[in-house]
UniProtKB/TrEMBL annotation:
Pfam families: Transp_cyt_pur. Keywords: Membrane, Transmembrane, Transmembrane helix, Transport. Belongs to the purine-cytosine permease (2.A.39) family. This is Allantoin permease. One of its GO terms (molecular function) is transmembrane transporter activity. Gene3D superfamilies: Hydantoin permease (1.10.4160.10). It comes from the Bacteria. Its main location: membrane. It is a multi-pass membrane protein. The keyword Transmembrane helix applies. InterPro entries: Pur-cyt_permease, Pur-cyt_permease_Fcy2/21/22. One of its GO terms (cellular component) is plasma membrane. PANTHER family: PURINE-CYTOSINE PERMEASE FCY2-RELATED (PTHR31806).
Length: 465
């Protein structure tokens, strides 16, 4: 009994299995602190600077575009997060209900690549920040240290990640607000308010980056809400996630945008140090801790995705903490090797990765939300999801996969990223609108191919009532 209690307190003993009611706990507000702290990160600050540095918007235009983009994208993020208490399983396991047991492997594969990209990018970033804070530590050694720290947190799991972010939300929030105050009370550059101008393309480009930022977290949101009691409903986890994710990211984006506007430099983080004065070195330390904590979530996500993929072929397998530790160690080693070999221009790589991979996330999230909230009325048959034959969801859902591929294909003519430019990519110069085309097409196609019905699980619940 004491050993089991110790394990539950220190290391999460679950991986991708269902969380029964007896193990549900916590409050919805923990989702606010998790997503608020997670999004106050150096990458968010650097990305926010794009509004004025790349799109050359003035401060007011940049501010409105940043806020609008995150408020829009945050809706999708929060809706996926609110599914966790209802289903009690990780987000990728839940995809079996939409695509079938084997059909979900396609989405899981794409998501795993995204997690790995985030993990490796943040490994590289943490190494540079550690070296910046403690110059005597070489970048390669700092990269390894940052990766090991993030991996340790991810190994401990769900509960530890939540606890760290509860503290971090207050610390990071207070630090950035103080930094903004320090920026604004000093004499501003004479052309501060006049620098840059409004442009529809620049505004919409900034809006898209904000929306895409929020949507990119959607594949693992319910991983962090599945332990909440099922009776918390939809509204409370939705608003806790929405306010936390939008609030934290808007604060970070605006912080970066203001820093480069007040103290222009060759690097956005250098602008932050110059613009915040005495607080700058302290912020660098806070950012370092934040990167490591944030990256533990990327590790946790990729581990759950890989275990989900393997468990698809071994229905009777219920992996626990030891399996997560082994997978985490393997990803740590592989991630460090890649990060050390490709650490240059990591910011450019990160931005290009998000914009390129959003093409596979958009149709997935639309199918996920319509299927859960509209077609199945917020209920899934959990035994079927874990059944070897897929239960009522089957092994392959051809209609869902067809819509998913259509949602990807329709983007190709409009794609504008570092890897490919479609024939209609210049409809709005400098802005990738392909994800919006996919959003509209998938929203129309999926309901048309699926008749609205009550799911089997809901009928069972009603019959027991």
């Amino acid at each position: 009994m004491n050993t089991q209690t110790l394990q539950n307190n220190l290391i999460e003993n679950k991986s991708v299995d269902y969380v029964p009611d007896s193990e549900r706990h916590g409050k919805s507000h923990s989702l606010f602190t998790l997503w608020f702290c997670t999004n106050i990160a150096p990458l968010a600050i650097v990305t926010g600077a794009i509004a004025t540095e790349t799109f050359h918007l003035n401060v007011i235009s940049a501010l409105t575009a940043i806020i609008a983009g995150h408020l829009f994208g945050g809706i999708f993020l929060a809706l996926t997060s609110a599914q966790g208490p209802k289903v009690g399983i990780p987000q990728m396991v839940q995809s079996r209900a939409q695509f079938g047991r084997y059909g979900s492997l396609l989405v899981i594969s794409f998501t795993t690549v995204i997690y790995l990209g985030f993990f490796i990018s943040n490994i590289s970033l943490s190494g540079k920040v550690i070296n910046n804070v403690i110059p005597v530590v070489p970048v390669y050694a700092a990269t390894i240290i940052g990766a090991i720290a993030a991996t340790f947190i991810g190994m401990v799991g769900y509960h530890f990640i939540h606890k760290i972010n509860k503290v971090g939300a207050w610390v990071m929030g207070a630090a950035l607000i103080t930094g903004l105050v320090l920026m604004l009370i000093q004499p501003l550059p004479g052309d501060f308010w006049q620098r840059g101008s409004f442009s529809a393309a620049g505004w919409f480009g900034t809006f898209c980056i904000g929306a895409v930022w929020q949507i990119s977290f959607s594949p693992y949101t319910s991983d962090y809400s599945r332990y909440l009691p099922a009776d918390v409903g939809i509204a409370r986890p939705f608003f806790a996630t929405y306010l936390g994710a939008c609030g934290g990211t808007i604060l970070a984006f605006v912080f970066g945008m203001m820093a480069v506007s007040i103290a222009p430099a060759s690097d956005a983080m250098m602008s932050v140090r110059h613009a915040t004065g005495w607080l700058g070195p302290i912020l660098m330390v806070f950012f370092l801790v934040n990167i490591i904590c944030h990256n533990s979530m990327n590790l946790y996500g990729v581990v759950l995705s890989l275990i989900t993929a393997m468990q698809t072929f071994r229905p009777g397998w219920t992996p626990g903490a030891s399996v997560r530790i082994v997978f985490s160690t393997l990803i740590l080693v592989g991630g460090v090797i890649v990060a050390l070999a490709a650490s240059e221009n990591f910011i450019s790589f990160f931005i290009n990765l998000i914009l390129a991979l959003i093409s596979v996330l958009i149709p997935w999230i639309v199918i996920n939300l319509i299927d859960f909230y509209y077609i199945n009325q917020q209920h899934y048959d959990i035994p079927s999801i874990f059944s070897a034959d897929g239960g009522q969801y089957g092994l392959l859902n051809g209609r869902a996969l067809m819509v998913y591929f259509v949602g990807i294909i329709v983007q190709i003519p409009f794609v504008e990223n570092a890897f490919f430019s479609g024939p209609y990519a210049k409809l709005i110069p400098g802005v990738d609108i392909s994800w919006i085309i996919s959003l509209i097409v998938t929203c129309i196609a999926y309901p048309l191919l699926h008749s609205r019905q009550r799911c089997f699980y809901r009928k069972n619940l009603q019959s027991k009532a």
